[in-house]
Structure prediction request, 344 residues.
Amino acid sequence: MKFGIFDQNDAGVLPLAEHYEARLQLCEAYDRLGFTTYHLSEHHATPLSYTPSTGVFLSAVAQRTKTLRFGPLVYILPLRHPLQLAEEICMLDQMSGGRLELGIGRGAVPHELRHHGVDPSVAVPMYREALQVLLQALTQPSVDFQGQYYTYNDVPMVLRPVQLPHPPLWYGVSAADAAVWPAQNAVNIVCNGPVGRVAEIAARYKAEWAAQGKPASALPCIGLSRAVVIGETDAEALEQARIGWKRYSESFYVLWKRHGSMPQYARTPEDFAEMIEAGTGFAGTVSTVRDALVKQARATSVNYVVSRFAFGDMSQAQALRSATLFATEIMPALREQEDQRHAA
Prediction:
């Protein structure tokens, strides 16, 4: 069992420069506490992300940490020039000694795409072409590609990543059918949905993996993403979570409301109590959160748990406390649960 962090890096109470420094200090703590990977989202024109240029922030993470792996979850490929992105990826991987994890996607918010002149209706084919170009740029001495959206003729690629042929790929999955391509291509996945759906996704991924004759011991990460707040009492933790989540949910919907629309699929509750009810968030004592997560890990058979400790108006001290207690008290229990499952 591995453990990661997901961070929207959304607006909080601190001025911008202090916000960046506080998040970097949290990354240093995640490094010390033994978390495997720090995942950072990409969003634009919204307080949902204070780090729309993910590479800039991640280059600082590379310098402030020693073993923590890190990467975007995800780079929005239709908004990125694929050759420049390949160069950025090589730089980050080299600057970190080979610690980059490469998340890729088409972009979930149509308004962000339109702000950058991309028609959401063509985001999927643009993403597919951009990914082909990106992988060629990371693995070949030059790029030759003729597509509908990108055309390159013998463009030399000077930089190379440390990790060959390229850093590990990551993809967000919200339905079982979407797990087929990642499983066929050894792509790590993260799921942020109800327990039943995550279980279906994990089962489909493992079935596709086994159908290729690949050993279970080499299975990529199948991640369960959850917001987590740990306190002295369940009531205290819930109150802290509600305070933080209120600001987060407001940031989540700002761009949608500006355009008079609402997301069709990726909605988020406005009250953290609804997150707990849906099983997508936890707030409570160590034992409350531990028992709930162990139960979900058993039900979904995931091998990677991704926590979100810092969001909205959550204080730095509370986020750090949750992360520390999670690492010292909950990680061992989840590892033990997985060992028991494998033995069985």
Notes: The chain has one domain: 2-73+169-343. The mean pLDDT is 96. The CA atoms of residues 263 and 333 lie 36 Å apart. The first strand starts at residue 2 and ends at 7.
